[in-house]
Amino acid sequence: MKLLLKNATLWDAAKGWRQNDLLLADEVIAAEGTLDAAQADTALDLTGCTLLPGFVDAHVHIALDDGPFLEDAPLGWAKNGVAAVRDCAMLSALPVADFIAWQRGHGDRRWPLVVNTGKYIDVPGGYGSELPPGHQIGLLGQTPEEMVAAVDALWAEGCTKLKIALDDSPNPFNPTLREHNLSPELIRAIVRRAHDHGMRVTAHVLEAKHLRTLVDCGIDDAGHTPTDFVPDDLLREMVEKDIPMVTTAVGPVQDNTPGLKPKRPGPPPPPPEVAGEMAKKKAAATAHAVDNLRRFHALGGRMLLGTDLMFSNNYDTCACIPVLEMEALREAGIPVEGILTAGTRDPADAVGLGDRLGTLEVGKLACVVAVKGVLSGGFSPLLRPDLVVNRGEILTKKL
Ligand SMILES: [Zn+2]
To answer: Are 349 and 365 found together in one domain?
Structure first.
């Protein structure tokens, strides 16, 4: 099918803002310019609309427990304008091979592209080892040789990325953990082997001191933004080494419609006597993360929008473009174009899809999102786009 999108205000990180027509032919972007409607089977007039590349969420979780894998989140992302996601570790004891086989069986054009990190590689008792207590979800080892074997195993299963963790803070899922962490020697062994395979390593990290260690050991991106102060010299070093930072400052959108029940129960809510204190801590953590991102961006750092979406009461509406992250960055004074780059080109590059996604360049996949208006009032229209085309298939059309 040839679809002509006429008179849109286009933006991408390659060419910035401009007024043009875009021709989508089958699965790819075929042409941009002043184009003749006779070239297309269908033409849509997008006068007054903003047209962007499909988004990439650099941090999500699809496999949440040992039950059947749920299609809800992937279906939500695709129809809401997220063209690709990086699954940042299965939170499940099921085999990686089953997870990837399930994706291959379902991954038609109603799905985003999914990039897999497989399972956490960790030491017994580490952040990514168990969930809940006693239930192993990670690939565990204690020697450099065991780490190399774990990397090789994930590579053989078809994972192109890896996930590790450094964390000794309390975790809502399992407060008994955090006694053990990967040593720098083990992290270096993992990173070296991953790079031999051309795999990139992301890391769960919430504290500046751990980020320091991970950067020293050669990780490729930080899977979160730390929630304490990250000194400028470390941010500058990340810019120099081109190590991007995934935002996860605010987290995923949730649906507050009364009566919605999650298909998968998340961690229990905190008891009322500590809920207020926890909310205060969360607000302080978010403020630190946003400030780190603001300074990182000002120094030239690459941000990757990521939500850490896992448990949700409605994937139909919550698996979406990371508008909460985007609004937090906008309020911090980061320019609109910098935020859009963090949701499109930079995460596409970081997850290894830069040749297929992230900009509107001819030859890339026909993944586009359009909304009415020019986003001058904020990013909220992107929550429910007016037009979504995923690899040439129209999934949402309200125009
Ligand atoms: Zn996560």
So the answer is: no
